[in-house]
Design goal:
The structure holds three protein chains of three kinds. Chain A is of the alpha/beta class. Chain A is elongated. Classes of the chains: A alpha/beta, B mainly alpha, C mainly alpha. Chains B and C meet through helix 1, helix 2, helix 3, helix 4 and helix 5 of B and helix 1, helix 2, helix 3, helix 4 and helix 6 of C.
Chain lengths: ~525, ~220, ~230
C-alpha cells in the first residue's frame, strides 16, 4: 500500500487519506505541494485542517533549518524557542538524513513549507511572503512608535511569526499547529514578545532636582552626630549665685566683726508674752516635760529661741523630763544642757532626766501619753527611772503617772509634721478643762504659719509660742538680759535687710531690664 | 506563708495563674488598727490595756525597722566600696563614719562627752552648713522668680516675703510706721486662713488614706 | 578651750569649708563630706535604738521580767525576727506580717490624731471666729476681731476649695457647683500665696540663723588660733 508521510508528525499514512490519522495534519502529495509554490488558496488554507502550504516557496531560513535538522536528530527550535517539528518530520525536508525510501524515492526531501521552483533552492523569500512580512513589520513598527519606551530594535518579529501571521500561513505552535487559515490573535495579546524595557530615570525638572539634592543633604546631615556646643564653665547663674553669697557673707561678717552697738530686741511678741506669763505662774519645782524634736542643722536658731525660756524655767526651779521622737533628739538634749548655753548647770538624774528616743511617731507618742513608765522604763543611760532600787522614782518624775501630771509640756520642734503630730495627740488633754497642763512650742521660724492656727483657735491646744530668733530675742527682753540671741541679733537684722534688698533689686532688674531692651528694640524696628 | 496563692484555670497547656491575695495581712492590719482607733473614743478598761500593749509592740517594731534600715545601708555601701563602682570613695567615707560612730558611741553610750563631741564637731557643722547654704539658694530663687513675666500671685508671694523679711530683724533701729503692724496682721489673719485650709485638707487626706488601709483597700505592707 | 575642743573646732572648720565649697560647684570633696555625715547620722541612730529600745524593751523584760511579762516580751522578739527577713529578697515575704501590724497601728494613730486634733478643733475654731461671746471673752476689740474672723473664714473655705481636684464626669459641660468651686479656688490662691510667702520668709530666717551660726563658729575658731599664737 502506498503511504504518505505526514508533513507534520512524519508518520506514514495511506495515500488516499487527506488528513493524518495521528495529528490530523493535512496530508498532501509532496510532489504536488512542492511543485506548486504559488499555491495560496486561502480557502484551503483556512479550513483549519490542512495547515501546511505546500505551494509556498522554501524560504532561506528553512533551508538553513534543513541543514541543521539533517545533521541533528534533536528537534530544533526557532528563534522564539518554539520547537520545530520533530526530527521525524525531517523526512519532508530536503536533505533530511532520515531515510524514508518511499518518500525520498518519490520525492526529494523538500519541506512542504517550501515551494519548488524558482528561488527555493537559493533560499529567497517569495515576494508575497516578503510583502506580508513588510506589512506586518510596518504595523508593528507603528505600535512601537506609539509607545516610545519600547525600543524598536528589540522587537523585530521573527520570520516564523511573520509566516504565521500572514493569511494562509501555517500555524506552527500551540494546539492548532499545522493548521492554516487561522485567524491571528491581536498582535499585542497573542504574540509573545519580550517585555519592553522601561527607563528608570525619573523625568524631573532642574528645579525639582535642586530640591531633591537639598533634601538629601538635610537627611544626610541628620544622621551625622553633631558636636555639642561647649558649655561655658562659668555661666550667668554661677555669677549671680556667687554675687549673692559674697554680698550676704560680707554683710554678716561686717555685723559680727565690727563693734556696733547692739540693736534693741523686739518690744512685744504675743506668743512670747503669753509664755512668759505661764512660766511665771508655775509652782516651785514644777515638772516640765520637754520634747526635743528638731534637727541638728537648726541648733543655732532653736538654742537661741529656747535658752531664754529655759533660763527662766530654771530660775523658777523647774525640773525636766526629756524625750524625743527622733533618733538625734536625746543627744541634742544632752548637748543643750551640757554645752554651757544656759545660765544654770543641771545634773542629770537629779534635775533632769533624759528618757531618750520613742520610735513610732504618733503611735509612740500615744504609747507614752497613755503609759509613760511602760514606754520608757529606762533613761538613755540605762538608769531605771520609774522604779529605782529604793522603789521610788527619780526626782524629775516623782508623782508622774500620766502625762497630764506635768505642769507644762515644752516642745522644741522644727518640722511641721512633727509639730502637728504632737499637737494632735496632746490636744484632747490640753483642751480638757479638768487638766491644768499647758503646751508651749519653741519652734523654728519656718513653722510659724503651720502652728499659728492652733495657737489662734478657741479652745487653744497651744498656749504659748516662741518663734525663731525673733521670739527668743523678744523673750530675752521680757526676762531681762541679752542672753544668747544677742550674739546673732544684729547680724540677723543685716542679713534679712540684705536679702529683702537683693530680692527686690535683683528681681526687678531681671524683669525690667529685658522689658526695656525689648521696648528699645521694638522702637528701633519701627524707626 | 507566701505572699500570693495561685490557682490554675484551664488545661495543662493553657494555665492561667490568678493571684489570690493572702487575707491574713489585711486581717492583722485591720484588727490591730480598729483596736487602736476605738481606744480614742471608748474608755473600756480591757480595750485600753490591749491598746497599750499593741502600741508598745508597735514602737519596738518601728525601732527594729530603723535598725534594719541602717543594716541595709551598710550592706549596700559595703558592696559598692569593694567593687569598682565609680562612687566607691563616697561609700568608703560613709562606712568609715558609720563604723567609727557605732564603735565609739556604742562603747561610751550616746550621752557621754565623747559621743557629744562627735555630734557637736562633725554632725552639727555639716548639717548646719547645709542649712546655711539654703539661705543663698532661697535669695537666688527669689531673684529669679521675676525672670518670667510675673502674675498677681507671684507679686503677692514676693511682697509678703519681703515685708516679713524686713520686719523680722532690727532694721538698723529704724521703725517704719505700720510695717510691724502689717506683719502681725499678715501672720494672724491671711496666713492663718491659708494654713488652716491647708491643715484641714491634710487631715482629710490622712483620714481618707488611713480608712482605706483599715478597710483593706490599700495594702502597703509589701504584698504583691 | 581644751585641746579636745580645739581639735574638734578644727574638724568643724574644715567640714564647714568643704560643705560651702558647693557654692563654687559640685565637687568630690563635698560628696565625701555628705556621705560622712550620713554615716555618722546612721551610726548615732542605730546606737540610740540599741540602747533605748532593743536592750531595755526587748531583752530586759525577757531576762528579768516575771511570767506574763516574759511571754509578752516574746511577741515583739518573734515579730522582730520576722521583720529582719525583709533584708533578704528570698524571704522578704515573711516580713509582711509585722509590716501589716505596723501599718495598721500607724494608720489608726494617724486617723485618731487627725480627727480629734485637727479636723474637729480647727472646724470649731473656724465656727468660733464669729462667736461674739467667745471673742468678747478673749479680746475687747469686737469689731476688728469680727472683720478678721470673716476674712479667716473666707480664706479657710476658699483655700479648701482651691485644693479640690476632681475630674469632670461630663467633659463637655461643667456643673454649676464645679464652676462655683473653681471661682472660690481662684480666691483661695491669694491666701495660699500669702501663706507660702510667709513660709518662704520663715525658712530663710531659719537658714540665715544657721549661716550666722557658721560664721560665728569660724570667727571664734580664728580668734582661738590667734589667742593660741599670741
Amino acid at each position: 500500500m502506498d503511504e504518505i508521510n505526514c508533513p507534520l508528525c512524519g508518520k506514514p499514512n495511506p495515500v488516499e487519506n487527506k488528513y493524518c490519522e495521528y495529528c490530523l495534519g493535512y496530508l498532501e502529495n509532496e510532489e504536488s505541494s512542492i511543485k506548486d509554490p504559488e499555491f495560496s488558496d486561502s480557502d484551503e488554507n483556512q479550513d483549519g485542517l490542512g495547515g501546511h502550504s505546500s505551494e509556498v516557496e522554501k524560504p532561506e531560513w528553512l533551508s538553513s533549518q534543513e541543514g541543521s535538522i539533517s545533521s541533528e536528530s534533536e528537534p530544533a527550535q526557532d528563534d522564539l524557542g518554539l520547537a520545530l517539528p520533530a526530527a521525524d518530520t525531517s523526512d519532508w525536508m530536503p536533505g533530511s538524513s532520515k531515510e524514508e525510501p518511499s518518500m525520498q524515492d518519490e520525492d526529494p526531501a523538500v519541506s512542504p513549507f517550501v515551494g519548488g521552483g524558482e528561488g527555493t533552492e537559493s533560499g529567497e523569500i517569495p515576494s508575497w511572503l516578503n510583502d506580508a512580512l513588510v506589512e506586518e513589520s510596518s504595523s508593528e513598527g507603528d505600535d512601537i512608535e506609539d509607545t516610545p519606551e519600547i525600543p524598536r530594535e528589540q522587537d523585530q518579529p521573527d520570520e516564523q511569526e511573520k509566516i504565521q501571521k500572514t493569511p494562509g500561513s501555517l500555524e506552527s505552535a500551540g494546539p492548532l499547529a499545522g493548521l492554516t487559515g487561522l485567524l491571528s490573535a491581536e498582535p499585542g495579546v497573542a504574540r509573545i514578545r519580550k517585555p519592553g524595557a522601561y527607563s528608570t530615570k525619573v523625568r524631573i525638572s532642574e528645579n525639582q532636582q535642586e530640591h531633591v539634592e537639598l533634601l538629601q543633604g538635610l537627611l544626610e546631615d541628620e544622621g551625622q552626630p553633631k558636636p555639642l556646643p561647649r558649655k561655658s564653665p562659668i555661666s550667668q547663674q554661677h555669677i549671680l549665685r556667687w554675687g549673692i553669697a559674697i554680698v550676704l557673707l560680707l554683710a554678716i561678717f561686717w555685723s559680727i566683726l565690727l563693734p556696733n552697738e547692739q540693736s534693741a530686741f523686739p518690744v512685744y511678741d504675743e506668743g512670747s508674752a503669753e509664755l512668759n506669763r505661764l512660766v511665771n505662774q508655775l509652782p516651785e519645782e514644777a515638772k516640765i516635760l520637754v520634747g526635743f524634736d528638731y534637727e541638728p542643722g537648726l541648733v543655732d536658731e532653736l538654742d537661741s529661741a529656747a535658752a531664754p525660756v529655759f533660763n527662766h524655767l530654771m530660775n523658777q526651779g523647774a525640773v525636766f523630763t526629756l524625750i524625743s521622737t527622733s533618733p538625734n533628739g536625746p543627744v541634742l538634749a544632752e548637748r543643750f544642757f551640757q554645752a554651757g548655753k544656759l545660765e544654770y548647770e543641771y545634773i542629770s538624774g537629779l534635775e533632769y532626766i533624759n528618757l531618750g528616743y520613742i520610735p513610732g511617731g504618733a503611735a509612740g507618742l500615744i504609747s507614752f501619753i497613755e503609759n509613760p513608765s511602760g514606754t520608757t522604763p529606762y533613761s538613755i543611760d540605762g538608769v531605771a527611772v520609774w522604779e529605782t532600787e529604793t522603789g521610788e522614782p527619780i526626782p524629775p518624775v516623782i508623782g508622774i503617772e500620766l502625762i497630764s501630771d506635768y505642769e507644762m509640756i515644752v516642745l522644741l520642734v522644727d518640722d511641721p509634721d512633727l509639730a502637728r503630730i504632737w499637737i494632735e495627740q496632746l490636744s484632747p488633754i490640753i483642751t480638757n478643762p479638768q487638766t491644768l497642763t499647758s503646751l508651749v512650742l519653741i519652734t523654728s521660724a519656718q513653722l510659724e504659719p503651720v502652728v499659728r492656727p492652733y495657737y489662734e483657735s478657741l479652745p487653744q491646744p497651744v498656749n504659748g509660742l516662741v518663734v525663731g530668733l525673733r521670739g527668743g530675742a523678744s523673750y530675752s527682753r521680757l526676762i531681762g538680759g541679752d542672753q544668747l540671741p544677742g550674739k546673732f541679733w544684729d547680724a540677723f537684722g543685716m542679713g534679712t535687710f540684705v536679702a529683702a534688698l537683693l530680692i527686690l533689686v535683683g528681681g526687678l532688674g531681671y524683669y525690667v531690664v529685658p522689658e526695656l531692651s525689648r521696648t528699645v528694640r521694638g522702637e528701633e524696628k519701627v524707626d | 506563708m507566701g505572699a500570693d496563692w495561685y490557682y490554675s484555670i484551664g488545661s495543662s497547656s493553657e494555665v492561667i495563674r490568678c493571684a489570690v491575695r493572702n487575707p491574713l495581712y489585711p486581717a492583722i492590719a485591720i484588727g490591730v488598727g480598729i483596736v487602736v482607733l476605738l481606744g480614742y473614743f471608748l474608755q473600756i478598761e480591757l480595750l485600753v490595756n490591749v491598746r497599750i500593749i499593741f502600741l508598745e509592740w508597735a514602737t519596738i517594731l518601728i525601732g527594729v525597722a530603723l535598725l534594719i534600715g541602717v543594716i541595709n545601708l551598710f550592706i549596700v555601701h559595703l558592696n559598692k566600696a569593694i567593687s569598682d563602682h565609680p562612687s566607691r570613695y563616697n561609700s568608703i567615707a560613709l562606712l568609715v563614719g558609720l563604723i567609727l560612730t557605732l564603735l565609739v558611741v556604742g562603747w561610751f553610750k550616746p550621752t557621754h562627752a565623747v559621743s557629744v563631741w562627735i555630734f557637736k564637731y562633725i554632725q552639727i557643722p555639716i548639717e548646719s552648713s547645709l542649712v546655711a547654704l539654703l539661705s543663698i539658694v532661697l535669695i537666688y530663687s527669689g531673684v529669679r522668680l521675676l525672670r518670667r513675666k510675673p502674675n498677681l500671685l507671684t507679686i503677692i508671694f514676693l511682697a509678703t516675703a519681703v515685708v516679713i523679711l524686713l520686719v523680722s530683724g532690727p532694721l538698723f533701729g529704724i521703725e517704719i510706721p505700720g510695717l510691724a503692724a502689717l506683719r502681725i496682721w499678715i501672720g494672724k489673719v491671711p496666713a492663718v486662713a491659708g494654713a488652716r485650709g491647708i491643715l484641714l485638707g491634710i487631715s482629710l487626706g490622712i483620714i481618707a488614706a488611713g480608712l482605706r488601709i483599715l478597710m483593706g483597700a490599700d495594702r502597703p505592707y509589701g504584698e504583691n | 578651750m581644751g585641746w579636745a575642743d580645739w581639735i574638734g573646732a578644727l574638724f568643724g572648720f574644715v567640714l564647714t569649708l568643704l560643705v560651702f565649697s558647693y557654692l563654687i560647684g559640685d565637687n568630690p570633696l563635698f560628696r565625701i563630706t555628705l556621705h560622712l555625715f550620713i554615716g555618722v547620722s546612721a551610726g548615732f541612730a542605730a546606737t540610740v535604738v540599741i540602747y533605748n529600745v532593743i536592750f531595755p524593751r526587748m531583752f530586759a523584760p525577757l531576762l528579768s521580767g516575771q511570767g506574763s511579762e516574759q511571754i509578752l516580751a516574746l511577741v515583739p522578739i518573734i515579730l522582730s525576727g520576722l521583720l529582719v527577713t525583709k533584708i533578704s529578697p528570698r524571704f522578704a515575704f515573711l516580713g509582711n506580717f509585722p509590716m501589716a501590724y505596723i501599718v495598721g497601728v500607724s494608720a489608726a494613730a494617724a486617723i485618731g490624731g487627725a480627727v480629734l486634733g485637727t479636723l474637729i478643733p480647727q472646724t470649731l475654731a473656724s465656727m468660733n471666729l464669729l462667736d461674739v461671746q467667745a471673742i468678747q471673752a478673749f479680746d475687747a476689740q469686737l469689731g476688728l476681731r469680727m472683720v478678721n474672723g470673716i476674712i479667716i473664714l473666707i480664706g479657710t473655705l476658699t483655700t479648701l476649695a482651691y485644693f479640690q481636684f476632681s475630674s469632670l464626669s461630663n467633659l463637655t459641660e461643667k456643673t454649676q457647683l464645679q464652676t462655683w468651686i473653681e471661682a472660690l479656688g481662684q480666691i483661695g490662691q491669694v491666701f495660699v500665696a500669702i501663706t507660702f510667702g510667709f513660709l518662704f520668709a520663715g525658712v530663710f530666717n531659719a537658714a540665715l540663723t544657721a549661716l550666722i551660726g557658721r560664721v560665728v563658729f569660724v570667727v571664734d575658731f580664728f580668734k582661738s588660733i590667734i589667742d593660741l599664737v599670741i
